[in-house]
Amino acid sequence: MSPMRTLATAGRVLLQIRNDPRTIALLLVVPSLLIGLVAWIFDETPVFDRIGPAMLALFPFIVMFLVTSIATLRERRSGTLERLLSMPMGRGDFILGYTLAFGLLAVIQTAIAVGYATWVCRLEIEESVLLLFAVAIADALLGTALGLLASAFARTEFQVVQFMPVFVFPQILLGGIFLPRDQLPDVLETIGDWLPLSHAIDALTAVSTGNEDAAYIWLRILFIGCWIIGAIIVGSLTLRRRTP
Amino acid sequence: MNLCPGERTIHQTFGGPSHLTCPIIGGLIHSMTSIAIQTRSLRIRRGSNIVIDRLDLEVPRGAIVGLLGPSGSGKTTLMRAIVGVQVVKSGTVSVMGQPAGAASLRHRVGYMTQLASIYEDLSVRQNLRYFARIQGAPKSDVDRVIDRTDLGGQADQLARTLSGGQANRVSLAAAMLGSPDVLVLDEPTVGLDPVLRSDLWNIFRRLADEGSTLLVSSHVMDEATLCDRLLLMREGAVIADTTPSELLETTGAATAEDAFLRIITYDSAAARRILTSTSKAAPGKGRTRGAQ
């Protein structure tokens, strides 16, 4: 692995996206539009203040999961990954390069979504906006890391899209948006407590309500960080230089 | 018909040193001197099929070696093994005396896959700049390979807007970055018109003249005559290791295509002749063409 090759890869991924303006527009605008829609649906009820923060956790995660898993699958199928792996390219360079590039996109995407949610949709944020950013970025990186992992198990575009429900929906269902986790059946509550998106949702809710201190939130970010590192390690193990 | 520019060099440099016949020390010296690629009882399985079975092969340095055979004969699998991205069941593959796929080899071997293997949403120059940084090649190399593959006019065009032949040349340009010692080119001329094909072969010849070893797969038999040596594959085995003129001579065919058909379909007399002539093709016959 070398920082030069990692940065070259991140730069190349960003360059590819820059050459595709429609993708940039979709990446940056769609989350805000959906948050606006949810705010509108629950207009004049207290519901948006409760689930609004969770929405901020969901979008960077889902979008980055999809974008990353498809981008990596394209590399596998177009032969570019095979070319790279026959070159002096570390597997870590490849994965970290993607993580860096999409992490940066996630920061921009989150900035727009948070700005829109707080200024236009009047979402209350009690804690510092900085903490909110930290959580959302961790969340987006989690999406990137899991997307890389998922693409290793997909052979076709059809499969990789099907992996979204597999990796993402259970986390949404068990994360406490629909029903607070402590009201779930015991087994599901335990599972939910170990899923990373639950902690992202907890952390963002805490940021917006101000019911918990910063240490509580950082602990949640740390938990997500462990998942990210785990997914990156497993992802780089599934990235084989030699394939059958 | 016989364009064979390699003929001249081959006959001039034939005749490997006789001490190479000692199997153990000879093998060692081979790997250090004249042999670019060597496989020893290589077996590769894909799915439940044995695609390559106990393959012994030697590719001399500084030559263009054509790897010919019908589709499905194991050419791509063999090439993948040589660049070190193929899981090998047993046996060895060595390139420039080192095990294929070794980290130290990765900047010495250029690989052009059958697909163009470039990023469609990057321009030609952006593609090559990225691959140059990964390969550890100097930045000036990008302009050199663009120039060599005659892509100057398309340098800032997005790869997805290129024609098939242009995309192919970008892929070749990427493989040429860092001037690797060994170039493994998987059907580089497939689907190209005769003019483009002859352009590419001119590039290959120039690379070989500069000392690179090229392993080029093809199923266009005309191209066989442009190679220095030929390896004919069928069902995962090399059924002939020969030179273009030897191929025509031993089979008595008028064209490479005809010769190949005779061998593939086991025109028995011709096949036996060529098989026996290659099994004897020890040093004196040109297997061990010296490095220049």
Automatic annotation (TrEMBL), chain A:
<keyword id="KW-0813">Transport</keyword>
<feature type="transmembrane region" description="Helical">
    <location>
        <begin position="129"/>
        <end position="153"/>
    </location>
</feature>
<dbReference type="InterPro" id="IPR047817">
    <property type="entry name" value="ABC2_TM_bact-type"/>
</dbReference>
<feature type="transmembrane region" description="Helical">
    <location>
        <begin position="94"/>
        <end position="117"/>
    </location>
</feature>
<keyword id="KW-0812">Transmembrane</keyword>
<keyword id="KW-0046">Antibiotic resistance</keyword>
<dbReference type="GO" id="GO:0046677">
    <property type="term" value="P:response to antibiotic"/>
</dbReference>
<comment type="similarity">
    <text>Belongs to the ABC-2 integral membrane protein family.</text>
</comment>
<dbReference type="InterPro" id="IPR051449">
    <property type="entry name" value="ABC-2_transporter_component"/>
</dbReference>
<dbReference type="GO" id="GO:0043190">
    <property type="term" value="C:ATP-binding cassette (ABC) transporter complex"/>
</dbReference>
<keyword id="KW-1003">Cell membrane</keyword>
<keyword id="KW-0472">Membrane</keyword>
<dbReference type="GO" id="GO:0140359">
    <property type="term" value="F:ABC-type transporter activity"/>
</dbReference>
<protein>
    <recommendedName>
        <fullName>Transport permease protein</fullName>
    </recommendedName>
</protein>
<dbReference type="InterPro" id="IPR000412">
    <property type="entry name" value="ABC_2_transport"/>
</dbReference>
<feature type="transmembrane region" description="Helical">
    <location>
        <begin position="217"/>
        <end position="239"/>
    </location>
</feature>
<keyword id="KW-1133">Transmembrane helix</keyword>
<feature type="transmembrane region" description="Helical">
    <location>
        <begin position="54"/>
        <end position="73"/>
    </location>
</feature>
<feature type="domain" description="ABC transmembrane type-2">
    <location>
        <begin position="11"/>
        <end position="242"/>
    </location>
</feature>
<dbReference type="InterPro" id="IPR013525">
    <property type="entry name" value="ABC2_TM"/>
</dbReference>
<feature type="transmembrane region" description="Helical">
    <location>
        <begin position="160"/>
        <end position="179"/>
    </location>
</feature>
<feature type="transmembrane region" description="Helical">
    <location>
        <begin position="21"/>
        <end position="42"/>
    </location>
</feature>
<dbReference type="Pfam" id="PF01061">
    <property type="entry name" value="ABC2_membrane"/>
</dbReference>
